[in-house]
């Protein structure tokens, strides 16, 4: 191991990255673009669901009932239909995703038997929004129901108000239920995984593809020196991306940061070590840039996006998939980040996640080092 | 005669491209393997549904009413009670450690306030470090609350005026989820994944195929042959178009046969939609290849485009909850149209009479992309 050779290798790699300033710029801008999309455009909360109403009854009671749908910002009445076929057409065309149909006997039913039911047709081709929309509709109907009950009782002098129970929720860690705040850790992890594994996965494959690997092999540089020298610049870029992401999230979007910066950067370095080694390993095995890039996508981006608990909660997945997530470094990293940002958890409680990440790091570093052979073909 | 020569040159080019792409087993696998794996993983892992929320309860009232409320929680299929706490700090540490998501604390006096006809409040702590899950859990909570209130009310009426119980006015909601009656997430995600995978695969393959020739230097060799530029472009894109069609068929089969997603629309409409979209993806790939000198550049640039396209396609989050500006912007995103088209054909079973505006916009995008990239491409190889 020679310090000079490592520095020379790093210098070569830095020069090569520097020759392509556009790519470098994109790498540094990608996290910002992602943050801005998640901050301003994408919203996991379902609100302003486009609603179509069809009042077959047309009485005071049915009008009162439908007013309740006007008053919330969960629904947005986009259409007032006058026939059932119009309702069907609107749902088919995707004009509205929920349609509320008040039956023609509504007021009379309520008056005579006390029981009335309304129909909600949901476009469940978006099952998530449909489920949430159904919940909203149910809540509105229930609140209307209890309102008329109270009025009915008071009319008859049957006493004291509604036996309401209200839940007083205190939301911890992310008080305003901003989806931004819990997405930030995921965005950081995703960007790091991509930067780390994508970029490095190409470096060795490119040398093989262009034939410069032969030149490199003929020099006295050792394989460990190649590895360290090649990975170091990307390590720095990864750290810069972490800083850009977290800085923007906290300063621009006001995401709370309750933990310690030392833990954040310490764990980020550990995670970077994992993804860099993974990328290195892939590039050594793939030997073509297209192959390396596809493999890296499959091995890092996808699990980080899907299986890390970033968007889809792990405890709701099938058990087998939950086991698979146990070997995914991104899962532990996202969990650590979420704790550091929102909960400010003590390091002691994070020990399990950190240990798991460190163990994966050791395995991958060894694997990457051993896979590279300084030999032709 | 000229036409024949042109045809022959394109044929040779396509042949070369197929040989090159299918030559080594590694690349062959890359054409189908990753797409297949992603489809399966997505189908199983991507679920926004929250089926069970773990909960802790602390009952400081210990009355029949409070126990009744708790039994409403244990009876609900959304909740499972992970802990019956006896002290307050157990709730706090449990939430901190992530043992449960929700902690319900029933204060003493709960039953008394209910009997007095005042509204009773119940304290709830929610771990909202995942805001979506927290929101859904709060929704379930209010359903349980409303349910409890309803039962309690009926019980009370039973006691004070049993003859009137059946006349208490009450409105029920009869919810009918159309197109996906079981509200299954797979049905929702599979068509969208299909569109996303097609975009990434075809765009990257096309961009890489051209850029690789440029990077290795074989592009110059091709250019000194009598082949014309547009013939070259056609020869480069046709193989990937065919590969795209093959992959789309494969993924459709996996979606319908493995995940049981119904294909209710006409298969011809599906084919048209997929093909128009493939043209758009090819156009984007060609455009990328004119923007990049090396494969690394091509990949980074592709990534730069695909991430926002995916996020803004309505694939995972509804377009109607985006701000108006982004809703309008998404009209320029071919992925938005194809996701909608695929979902509509698979689940709703609608045809061209409903889908024509999206098809047209997508076709317009494809034509625009292809012409821009062909123009740029011709310049870039001169």
Task: Please give a structural write-up.
The complex is a heterodimer of chains A (377) and B (382). By secondary structure, chain A is α/β, with parallel strands linked by helices. Chain A folds into two domains: 3-42 and 177-371, no CATH class; 49-155, abc type-2 transporter like domain (abc type-2 transporter like fold). Chain A has helices spanning 3-18, 21-41, 60-70, 84-92, 106-112, 127-155, 179-210, 212-217, 223-251, 261-286, 289-306, 319-325, 329-343, 347-371; strands at residues 49-55, 75-81, 98-102, 115-123, 165-172. In chain A, helix 3 links the parallel strand 1 (49-55) and strand 2 (75-81). Chain B is an alpha/beta fold and 382 residues long. Chain B folds into two domains: 10-47 and 183-380, no CATH class; 53-167, abc type-2 transporter like fold, CATH 3.40.1710.10. In chain B, helix 3 links the parallel strand 1 (53-59) and strand 2 (79-85). In chain B, helix 10 (267-291) packs across helix 11 (295-311). The relative contact order of chain B is 0.11. At the A-B interface, helix 2, strand 4, helix 6, strand 5 and helix 7 of A face helix 2, helix 4, strand 4, helix 6 and strand 5 of B. Strand 4 (115-123) of chain A pairs parallel with strand 5 of chain B.
Q: Count structural domains of chain A.
A: 2
Largest pleated sheet of chain B: 4 strands, mixed
Query: What is the number of helical segments of chain A per DSSP (H or I, 4+ residues)?
Result: 14
Strands across the major sheet of chain A, in which order? 2-1-3-4
Largest sheet of chain A: 4 strands, mixed
- Biggest interface between chains: A-B, 123 and 120 residues
Catalogue the unreliable spans of chain A. none
Instruction: Tell me the span between the first and last alpha carbons of chain B.
Output: 27 Å
Distance between the termini of chain A: 25 Å
- Report the C-alpha radius of gyration of chain B, rounded: 29 Å
**Based on DSSP secondary structure assignment, what is the total number of beta strands of chain B?**
5
Overall pLDDT level of chain B = 85
Q: Tell me the number of strands of chain A.
A: 5
């Amino acid at each position: 191991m020679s310090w000079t050779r490592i520095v020379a290798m790093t210098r070569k790699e830095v020069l090569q990255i520097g020759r392509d300033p556009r790519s470098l710029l994109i790498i540094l801008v990608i996290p910002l673009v992602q943050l801005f999309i998640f901050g301003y455009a994408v919203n996991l909360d379902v609100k302003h669901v486009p609603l179509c109403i069809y009042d077959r009854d047309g009485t005071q009671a049915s009008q009162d009932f439908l007013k309740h749908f006007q008053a919330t910002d969960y629904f947005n009445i986009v259409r007032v239909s006058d026939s059932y076929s119009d309702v069907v057409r609107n749902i088919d065309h995707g004009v509205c995703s929920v349609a509320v149909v008040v039956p023609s006997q509504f007021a009379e039913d309520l008056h005579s038997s006390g029981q009335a039911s309304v129909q909600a047709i949901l476009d469940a081709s978006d099952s998530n929004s449909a489920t949430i929309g159904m919940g909203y509709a149910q809540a509105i109907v229930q609140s209307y129901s209890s309102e008329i009950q109270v009025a009915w009782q008071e009319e008859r002098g049957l006493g004291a108000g509604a036996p309401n129970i209200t839940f007083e929720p205190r939301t911890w860690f992310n008080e305003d239920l901003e989806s931004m705040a819990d997405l930030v850790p995921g965005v950081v992890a995703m960007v790091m995984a991509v930067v780390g594994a994508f970029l490095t996965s190409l470096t060795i494959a490119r040398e093989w593809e262009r034939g410069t690997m032969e030149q490199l092999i003929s020099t006295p540089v050792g394989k460990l020196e190649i590895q360290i020298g090649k990975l170091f610049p990307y390590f720095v870029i990864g750290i810069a991306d972490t800083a850009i992401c977290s800085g923007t999230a906290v300063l621009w979007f006001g995401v709370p940061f309750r933990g310690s910066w030392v833990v954040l950067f310490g764990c980020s370095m550990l995670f970077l070590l994992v993804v860099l080694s993974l990328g290195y390993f892939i590039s050594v095995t793939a030997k073509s840039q297209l192959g390396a890039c596809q493999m890296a996508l499959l091995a890092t981006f996808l699990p980080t996006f899907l299986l890390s608990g970033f968007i889809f909660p792990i405890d709701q997945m099938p058990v087998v998939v939950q086991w698979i997530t146990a070997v995914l470094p991104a899962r532990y990293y996202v969990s650590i980040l979420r704790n550091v940002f929102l909960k400010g958890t003590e390091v002691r409680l994070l020990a399990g996640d950190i240990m798991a990440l460190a163990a994966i790091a050791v395995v991958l570093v060894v694997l990457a080092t051993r896979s590279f052979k300084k030999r032709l073909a | 005669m000229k036409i024949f020569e042109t045809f022959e040159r394109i044929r040779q080019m396509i042949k070369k491209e197929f040989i090159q792409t299918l030559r080594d087993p590694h690349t062959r696998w890359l054409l189908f393997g990753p797409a297949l794996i992603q489809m399966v993983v997505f189908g199983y892992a991507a679920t926004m549904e929250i089926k069970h929320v773990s909960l802790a309860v602390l009952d400081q009232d210990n009355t029949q009413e409070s126990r009744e409320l708790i039994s409403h929680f244990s009876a609900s299929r959304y909740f499972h009670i992970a802990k019956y706490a006896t002290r307050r700090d157990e709730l706090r540490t449990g939430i901190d450690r992530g043992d449960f998501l929700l902690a319900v604390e029933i204060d003493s006096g709960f039953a008394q306030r209910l009997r007095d006809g005042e509204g009773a409040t119940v304290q709830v702590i929610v771990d909202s470090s995942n805001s979506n899950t927290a929101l859904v859990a709060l929704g379930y909570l209010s359903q349980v609350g409303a349910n409890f209130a309803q039962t309690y009310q009926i019980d009370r009426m039973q006691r004070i005026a049993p003859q009137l119980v059946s006349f208490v006015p009450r409105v029920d909601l009869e919810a009918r989820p159309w197109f996906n009656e079981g509200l299954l997430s797979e049905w929702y995600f599979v068509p969208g994944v299909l569109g996303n995978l097609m975009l990434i695969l075809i765009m990257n393959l096309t961009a890489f195929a051209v850029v690789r020739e440029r990077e290795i230097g074989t592009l110059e060799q091709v250019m000194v042959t009598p082949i014309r530029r547009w013939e070259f472009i056609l020869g480069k894109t046709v193989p990937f178009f065919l590969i795209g069609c093959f992959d789309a068929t494969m993924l459709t089969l996996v979606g319908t046969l493995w995940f049981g997603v119904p294909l209710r629309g006409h298969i011809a409409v599906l084919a048209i939609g997929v093909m128009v979209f493939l043209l758009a993806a090819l156009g984007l790939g060609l455009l990328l290849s004119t923007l990049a000198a090396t494969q690394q550049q091509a990949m980074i640039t592709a990534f730069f485009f695909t991430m926002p396209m995916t996020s803004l396609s309505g694939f995972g989050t509804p377009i109607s909850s985006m701000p108006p500006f982004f809703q309008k912007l998404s009209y320029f995103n071919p992925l938005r149209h194809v996701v909608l088209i695929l979902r509509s054909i698979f689940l709703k079973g609608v045809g061209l009479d409903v889908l024509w505006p999206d098809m047209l916009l997508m076709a317009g995008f494809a034509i625009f992309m292809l012409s821009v990239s062909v123009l740029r491409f011709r310049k870039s190889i001169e």
